[in-house]
Design a protein that fits this description.
Two copies of one chain form a homodimer. The first copy, chain A, contains four helices and 18 strands. With about 300 residues, the first copy, chain A, is α+β, with helices and mostly antiparallel strands. In chain A, strands 15-5-6-13-12-14-4-3-16 form a nine-stranded antiparallel β-sheet. The two termini of chain A are about 25 Å apart.
Chain lengths: ~300, ~300
């Protein structure tokens, strides 16, 4: 068995090959050795990384540990601001994970639709299903065509889809991305219920919901939640829900209690090397290099600050 | 909240919209009403479905229930035959789920690489990473381009990728597909360790492993397994593994104990209607119909026999 890596690569992608089954056999035809994603990360320089922004980083404390999510305010400024406001008034503290639908999403917030918990933040927030691409940050194009969008790539550590003709950009529903649940009206998602993608990217939701960020650490705490047996994976009974002790903004947490994480700069050459390592894997296990990569299969490395 | 459906749609796709957050708002602009996947399934005729083949259906009994997988022997005849042989000699009974890597795979079989459980079935099986497309069954083309393969579509209830120039076809690594774990040599996967995809489709594995079928019921029993903390998500301690009571071929199980499932015929007009319902969703919740669909987002409906 190959050695483990300490890097968190959150986008549904293994760094290493599958597992031996113990049988012996003659050596197979091999592809030439090639740096793996782990190798590229190891060879990267400090300038290839940025720390998470404390004003845009949330810690959700569950009984099993901390989930860290990073907001992408350039793609959802109003939603991010309202989530920040909700968090700062302690809105999520004592609420719970209310939904786990297999192969789809895990969702958290207020389970009570009849007498919802009061809050001071906005009750309605304008839809930010897509935003003007200009001003969202430096876009690095992925060369592959995409099934759902004219262009895809990355901005500031997030996967991004774009329509150059319309001049619009949006965050796609890749694994670990965080969206703002809403009712039928477009402006009914105010951040009081959030969800993350736990299965194959449901890209048909793109541009139908405000996507506001991604989970950069702690996904396994959410993906193993028991699936809810009510419609859409909601839990039928209160005791089936996992309680949320608190959600805090990193900026409001004393420095020693903060998670010290950094994300690879997606505008760096190192990130291009990561993509290429995953696009064309080499070495003794791989027999056919894919030669291409799907947006949601691109690993966006996150690690402890060095 | 909308009503639940009783249909198992296993390919990472919700039939219904997201959840309301309790806020009230003026009616939003609506897309015209349109049959949903659930509507199409409801309107389907008995001839749009086929029962699972008992000679190609496996029941894996876990403490939490039964996982049902269907083999696709036209894409992996040798692997399917060896898995059938292993199952018929009771090979898996008393073994365990040995690996859960977040966003990637859950794997089961013999954890002991040093003194593996003896068996009579073949120790090595020729690779079936791709096979001649001719003879694999009636192919229904999906019109969308694919990032990883020249053509994609469906055969007999399974997603399929093809290279028409090479005349080859293979099963892709979509959610719930089952693959044959192997060591570095191509012929070292004999079916004694199998895995299923639990996250975003790791299509870069396509044509590197023999994919032998898919899980048609019971995915949630596997996806919630605690993630292993050793390299590649293997469990470090024996007590962390989930025991497998037995794996049986449906043909060897008395009729009253069989799962009575049927899968939608992927060559039917009903299945085309399913794809279109998912490709272009309508109704009051959806604001933008995707207009396209990714192979691994196509739901392949499975239900109790009617």
């Amino acid at each position: 068995m190959k050695a483990a890596t300490t890097i968190h690569v959150l986008i549904g992608t293994a760094l290493l090959g599958m597992f031996a089954n113990g049988a012996c056999a003659a050596p197979a035809k091999e592809l030439p050795p090639k740096p793996s994603v782990a190798d590229v990360v190891k060879a990267s320089k400090p300038g290839d990384w940025r720390a998470l922004d404390p004003e845009n980083t949330l810690y959700m404390e569950l009984p099993t540990g901390r989930v860290v999510m990073e907001l992408a305010p350039s793609f959802a400024p109003k939603a991010a601001a309202n989530i920040r406001a909700l968090v700062r008034e302690g809105y999520f503290d004592g609420l719970s994970v209310i939904r786990a639908q297999d192969g789809f999403v895990v969702q958290w917030g207020d389970p009570d639709e009849v007498t919802p918990r009061p809050f001071k933040a906005a009750r309605t927030v304008d839809a930010e299903f897509s935003v003007p691409a200009k001003g969202t940050g430096q876009f690095t194009l992925l060369k592959e065509r995409d099934v759902y969008a004219p262009q895809v790539g990355h901005v500031n550590g997030f996967p991004v889809a774009r329509d150059p003709k319309a001049g619009q950009a949006w965050l796609p529903h890749c694994y670990a991305m965080v969206g703002v649940a809403r009712d039928e009206a477009s402006n009914t998602g105010n951040g009081s219920q959030l969800y993350t993608v736990i299965g194959h990217a449901p890209r048909h939701l793109d541009r139908n919901i405000t996507v506001v960020g991604r989970i950069v650490s702690g996904m396994p705490l959410l993906t193993v939640m028991p699936r809810g047996s009510a419609a859409l994976g909601f839990y039928e009974k209160a005791e089936q829900r996992t309680p949320i002790a608190s959600v805090r903004l990193a900026a409001d947490v004393p420095a020693p209690e903060r998670s010290k994480l950094e994300v690879m700069r997606t505008e760096s050459a190192a990130f291009q090397a990561v993509i290429d390592a995953q696009r064309n894997r080499g070495g003794p296990w791989t027999k056919v290099a894919a030669g291409a990569i799907d947006l949601c299969n691109v690993p966006i490395p996150v690690r402890e600050q060095q």
